[in-house]
Amino acid sequence: xxxxxVRPTVGQVAERAGVSTAxxxxxxxxxxxxxxxxxxxxxxxxxxxxxxxxTSARAQARGGTGVLGLTMATHGDVAVPYTEIPYYAELIxxxxxxxxxxxYLLVVLPASMSSxxxxxxxxxxxxxxxxRVHDPVLSILAKRGIPLVCAGRPLESRRxxxxxxxxxxxxxxxxxxxxxxxxxxxxxxxxxxxxxAFPAILRSAYDGWCTAAGQEPVVETFTPDLAGAGERAAIExxxxxxxDAVFGVYDDSGRLLLxxxxxxxxxxxxxxxxxxFSDDPGYAHLDPPVTTxxxxxxxxxxxSVDLLVGLVNGRRGLRRQRLLAGELRVRASSx
Length: 335
Prior knowledge:
Layout: H1 10-17, H2 21-29, H3 36-48, H4 55-61, E1 67-72, H5 86-101, E2 105-108, H6 117-120, E3 125-129, H7 136-144, E4 148-151, E5 163-166, H8 168-181, E6 187-192, H9 197-213, E7 218-222, H10 229-239, E8 245-248, H11 253-263, E9 273-277, E10 291-294, H12 297-312, E11 321-324, E12 327-329
Parallel strand pairs: 1-2, 1-3, 3-4, 4-5, 5-11, 6-7, 6-8, 8-9, 9-10
Antiparallel strand pairs: 10-12
């Protein structure tokens, strides 16, 4: 009979990371005065050894539950299938893994406002993804006094807010510069009309780039819907304005742009360069492969949990607002 698997110890983590056991505890609890490099080294050592702290004991000692929550932007009673969208699926999985590494459970809560169970669920803290203007989730959590980190900055961010986001504006400028280097002189934007920060940041970056480049803005907007009808109509309107490059910002945008280009007898990229903001790996295998901007969902998920654990444990000197660089992945659709 095989022997029972021996659980790794805090001492083994300390030895692997080259630190004391107290430093390991501080790193995993989000406490103490540690450099970010030291904290990351401890977390990597814990991950390599599959070490998980005794969450229940730690939670009881600090008067908590050992449970974190993750909520998504709500849209009334519409249950958006977030886990079917690559960006959100990757963010959620990374956040769960990061919580486990830090000795917490993470519960993904319903995205529909028709389900109120998450309002009374005992939680030590919450990561809320893509807050909206006047977001009901934010107001309810604030009333409960639950520590909160937003994955995606609020549109009206205050200095006291805690959030992690991708620098989408800078990433868009990289994409626009790439289009222009390839010869594009009339770049169209297909943007959602929505009350979160993402489209507002992109519109501001696009308008600023157009002013600097001397290009007239070519923008078509749409109201998001699950069927994608609004975006299709906006793409049609954009193509009627004869752009030589076009980008969308949702996971399905690249496919919709390719379909529309084919319907207009436009060859990609000869007649029309195409790109989108997406973390769908399938774009690398289309014909032609589509240029994408990655918003690094795994890194956003991990950084959000890391910041939340620090808030829950009262860690001092926290940088409450963290901006990560996006990544332009150039493929044949714009090369």
